[in-house]
Specification:
This protein has one domain. 43% of the residues lie in helices and 30% in strands. It contains four helices and four strands. A hairpin with a 2-residue loop joins β1 and β2. The longest helix is centred in the middle third of the chain and has 37 residues. The radius of gyration is 21 Å and the shape is elongated.
Length: 195
């Protein structure tokens, strides 16, 4: 069995609101074991790697990306952005565990709580990505008429960069304040503490 094999679960939701299209994909990585320490160790070894964790995996991870396009149209001697299209693509990676026969019922229940907790946290990251897409729409719309296409594109790029940087900072604060796994009352924290 290849423990690192990732199964793509496909699109969970695709929505279009206004000029923003959102696509959320869910992936999983397999963990094995019949006790909490083994499950936790699998998560650390096989979970999505995070740069600042020195190669150790985290339990779950969301990667989002915002893409945009618009046409710079000239009218009345000025260029304006038109036909704005923005998309947010998010990929959520979560652990998957098939409880072996005879697995303790309390471990199965704890695992279900872990998944609910992880999913709720990752949905917060997805929300930040979608909010970022809407910020990009607003940033493009806020660009005033410019004397040239180059001036318009430079202004729009600066506005988008500022919007994305602001939302990335919001995401950093979100993770910094989350007690996920650090709190002995959280399901992931209880999984780590069990012997």
């Amino acid at each position: 069995m290849d423990l690192r094999a990732e199964a793509e679960l496909g699109d969970r939701a695709t929505e279009g609101r206004g000029d923003v299209t959102t696509r959320i994909r869910e992936r999983s990585y397999r963990v094995v074991g019949s006790d909490a320490p083994t499950l936790r160790r699998c998560i650390e070894l096989l979970g999505p790697p995070i740069e600042d964790r020195m190669g150790r995996g985290c339990a779950a991870y969301t990667r989002w990306q915002v893409r945009w396009s618009y046409q710079a149209r000239e009218g009345r001697g000025a260029f304006r952005p038109e036909d704005v299209r923005v998309a947010c693509d998010a990929t959520v990676t979560l652990p998957h565990w098939d409880a072996p026969l005879g697995a303790p019922a309390e471990l199965v229940t704890l695992w279900q709580e872990v998944l609910l907790e992880l999913r709720a946290h990752e949905e917060g990251h997805v929300r930040i990505g979608v909010e970022t897409a809407h910020e990009v729409v607003r940033a493009i719309a806020a660009a005033p008429p410019a004397p040239s296409e180059a001036a318009l594109r430079a202004d729009v790029a600066a506005r988008i960069d500022a919007a994305i940087a602001s939302r990335r900072e919001a995401e950093r604060r979100y993770d910094a304040t989350a007690a996920l796994g650090r709190d002995a009352h959280s399901a992931l924290g209880r999984l780590a503490a069990r012997r």
